[in-house]
Specification:
The chain has four helices and twelve strands, in the order ββββαβαββαβαββββ. The two termini are 16 Å apart.
Length: 193
């Protein structure tokens, strides 16, 4: 059965990027080992430890679509229409780019609910990954997330872009599955219904 999950790498103090959108300190686990995990994007290499490789393989192999916010899409230039997970991307935005045809594997929609619905259609029996903080927060509030995944990096940023800053209401999670990797602890929390 397919599910919707969020996945972000986060600093110990809850940030997914520094105030200038820098991710180097929290993403160093992607190059902290000698196990290569294939990426669908030639410009992205993933060389991690064996435990982190198992986590990444599971996330990548189960994914059928990815939901992103417009801000992340713009920062990455739409991953050159080749997200490292190798899946189509659904972007939540109120203003699609004028040159949207540059990204034929990307769909632009106006709200989170529609994005999750469209991503599920694209994914079929596979999972939908939500990879933007604001979109993840909205999807949680709407009750659309089955699992929250966090790769927790051993760094304190002190300020930046928070993963869970604007949640509406309380969200209870089940006990996590925990995988200790090099430079990251991978946590998977099923959402309690």
């Amino acid at each position: 059965m397919s599910k919707v999950f969020t996945h972000m790498t986060m600093s110990l103090d809850g940030f997914i990027a520094d105030p200038d959108d820098g991710i180097e300190d929290i993403f160093d686990w992607y190059d902290a080992g000698d196990v290569s995990v294939p990426s669908a994007n030639e410009g992205v290499s993933l060389n991690v430890d064996e435990a982190s490789a198992a986590v990444l393989r599971d996330l990548i192999e189960s994914a059928g679509a990815l939901v992103s916010g417009r801000r992340l899409f713009d920062i990455t230039d739409g991953w050159g229409d080749s997200h490292p997970m190798g899946v189509p991307v659904v972007v939540v935005t109120h203003r699609p780019p004028e040159d949207a045809d540059r990204w034929p594997r990307t769909t632009f929609v106006g709200d989170v609910g529609t994005a999750i619905e469209r991503a599920k259609e694209i994914a079929g029996d596979k999972d939908v990954t939500v990879a933007s903080a604001s979109v993840a927060q909205q999807a949680l509030t709407l009750g659309l997330v089955d699992e929250v995944c966090v790769s927790l990096a051993p760094v304190l940023l002190g300020a930046g872009i928070p993963y869970f800053a604007n949640l509406d209401g309380r969200h209870l999670l089940e006990d996590p599955t925990v995988v200790q990797g090099r430079r990251a602890v991978h946590l998977r929390y099923p959402v309690r219904r």
